[in-house]
């Protein structure tokens, strides 16, 4: 419980308490929130940190009118990178953690299932049309793509640092595949608000990063 007493975490811990209280009377709710904050504070993280959690929650609030169940989306935001080792199964293990934690807190089974589904969706960020909860979470998670250029550069540097164990060539190839898929999609963002306000800047950032990642002609 030590971590939740740090001043930087007090606001988030209070937000967790306010979010979970209507859905659980378990005395373990505070401990669960503290454990989540500890996970998000792990020293190996460079981008998927407390700051990212705070940003995603803030953007969920901004997009909440689009969601059918904003609390499910907020809970999924708390769990979507609860496990982060830079491994292919991070999202699956995060979803399993959500199922275990929220089941132990005796949340409604349907809510637990929806949170876990949303967490798994962040592995691809491809909600089906009409999946308003999924669209809200995915847009909030990808909001950083529409950041000002300097902030976007800091984001890409932090992501690279998290994958320092991956050789440059392999990292660049994987990153290009992700960015090209976003570039070629009909829209980066699915919610009306995000599409209207974030789409143009996100596409500008994506194009610029792709130019930086592609090898010069003749190589």
Briefly say what this structure is.
The chain has 219 residues and is mainly α. It is built from ten helices and no strands.
Oligomer: single chain
- Main pleated-sheet profile: none
- What is the CATH top level name of the largest domain? Mainly Alpha
Shape: globular
Q: What are the secondary-structure elements, in order, as H or E?
A: HHHHHHHHHH
Named CATH topology of the largest domain: Hypothetical protein af1432
Overall number of domains: 2
Low-confidence stretches: 1-7
Structure annotation, total helices: 10
Strand percent estimate: under 5%
User: If you average the pLDDT, what whole number results?
Assistant: 94
Percent helix, as a range, is: 55-70%
Pairing-aware structural class of the strands and helices? mainly alpha
Number of strands: 0
Q: Please tell me the CATH architecture of the largest domain by its name.
A: Orthogonal Bundle
Radius of gyration: 18 Å
Query: How far apart are the termini?
Result: 53 Å
Task: Characterise the protein shown here.
This protein has 219 residues and is mainly alpha-helical. The protein folds into 2 domains: 1-141, Hypothetical protein af1432, CATH 1.10.3210; 144-219. It contains 10 helices and no strands. The protein has helices spanning 7-20, 29-40, 50-63, 70-79, 90-104, 109-121, 132-141, 149-162, 168-184, 192-213. It is globular, with a radius of gyration of 18 Å. The termini are far apart. The model is unreliable at 1-7 (pLDDT under 50).
């Amino acid at each position: 419980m030590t971590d939740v007493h740090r001043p930087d975490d007090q606001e988030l811990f209070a937000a967790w308490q306010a979010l979970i209280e209507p859905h659980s009377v378990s005395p373990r709710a505070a401990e669960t929130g503290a454990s989540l904050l500890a996970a998000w504070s792990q020293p190996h993280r460079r981008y998927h940190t407390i700051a990212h959690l705070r940003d995603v929650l803030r953007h969920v609030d901004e997009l909440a009118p689009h969601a059918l169940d904003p609390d499910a989306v907020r809970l999924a935001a708390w769990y979507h990178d609860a496990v982060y080792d830079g491994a292919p199964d991070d999202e699956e293990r995060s979803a399993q953690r959500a199922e275990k934690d929220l089941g132990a807190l005796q949340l409604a089974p349907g809510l637990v299932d929806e949170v876990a589904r949303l967490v798994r969706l962040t592995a691809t960020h491809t909600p089906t049309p009409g999946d308003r909860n999924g669209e809200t979470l995915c847009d909030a998670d990808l909001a950083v793509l529409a950041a000002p250029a300097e902030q976007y550069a800091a984001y890409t540097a932090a992501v690279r640092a998290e994958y320092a164990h991956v050789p440059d060539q392999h990292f660049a190839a994987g990153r290009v595949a992700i960015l090209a898929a976003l570039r070629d999609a009909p829209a980066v963002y699915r919610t009306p608000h995000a599409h209207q306000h974030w789409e143009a800047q996100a596409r500008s950032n994506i194009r610029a990063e792709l130019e930086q990642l592609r090898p010069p002609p003749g190589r």
